[in-house]
Amino acid sequence: MTNSDQKEKPENIVAAIQMCSSHVISENLYVAEKFISEAAKNNTKLVVLPEMFAIMGLTSKDKVFHKEKFGQGQIQDFLSEQSRKHKVWIVGGTIPIESSNQEKIKAASLVFDDKGSFVARYDKIHLFDVTISEKEAYRESDTTDQGNELVVVDTPIGRLGLGVCFDIRFPEMFRELFNKKIEVLAIPSAFTVTTGKAHWELLARARAVENFCYVIGSCQGGTHSSGRETYGNSIIIDPWGDVIAKKKGTNAGVIYASIDHSKTRKLMVSR
Q1: Considering 104, 124, 246, 247, which one is annotated as catalytic?
Q2: Domain total for the chain?
């Protein structure tokens, strides 16, 4: 199944949601709920939301203003409610969780099971401090504290490793996840247009091939209320490196794929 209007019903369906989030949290949650509901109707077992799905601020500091205490808050309540309501596991992209530094946040990817219970948290490790050109530069570390712990969680679609966006450029991180027996990677992202065109699919396919695993890449896409542009092109890749689902371009929507671990086992004789 490669897009939201195809309706196969294999056993282990996963969904990647693509959004163009704004600075208004309520609007973003409304869009996310619409796509989570759609995914659930297609018998999806696990849904991955994009990085910063709940807020893409007018400035980089907006997310600090909207940070939540871990374990409580509007966005976390939303994720719990949606997973319970639709009986689906959700990887909640990233949301701003308070850090020990009051002027910064942790970019936390939270996982909720199909009963609405929190099961795992990964804090983004590799922050996007990059100068692309004289006119385009980013310094995520000005507002975000990096994480320091790798996270793997058992889910109905297999052993799931978590990463976020810029993490994908660091293969050593994913090799450590490989050693923890991952079968699927969820990588919520918000690639820039420049870096996305050059490297997004290349890197996603590389991480799938070298780690003998599926990759689910849910992306931001389009022009946001701040004027920032993101690449879109959400993608699901199998362990052979084949693209089995892709949301071409920047339009919001959902893509689906079936996770078939027999393919992985054939490749993993020596694991």
Answers
A1: 124
A2: 1
Whether residue 264 is contained in a domain is answered as: no
Torsion angles phi and psi, residue 10, rounded to 5: -70, 175
Considering the domain boundaries, does residue 84 fall inside one? yes
> Would you state the structure tokens that stand for residue 112, as one six-digit string?
């909720």
CATH number for position 171: 3.60.110.10
* Structure token digits, residue 7: 């309706």
Catalytic status, residue 63: no
Beta-bridged to residue 153, according to DSSP, are: 160
Residue 271 included in any domain: no
Catalytic residue among 51, 68, 140, 229: 51
**267 in any annotated domain:** no
Separation CA 247–CA 221 (nearest Å): 10
Question: Any catalytic annotation for residue 213?
Answer: no
pLDDT digits (tens, 9 = 90+) for 205-222: 999 999 999 999 999 999
Catalytic residue among 68, 104, 140, 165: 165
Catalytic residue flag (residue 124): yes
pLDDT digits (tens, 9 = 90+) for 135-177: 888 999 999 999 999 999 999 999 999 999 999 999 999 999 9
Q: Which residues span the domain enclosing 138?
A: 13-257
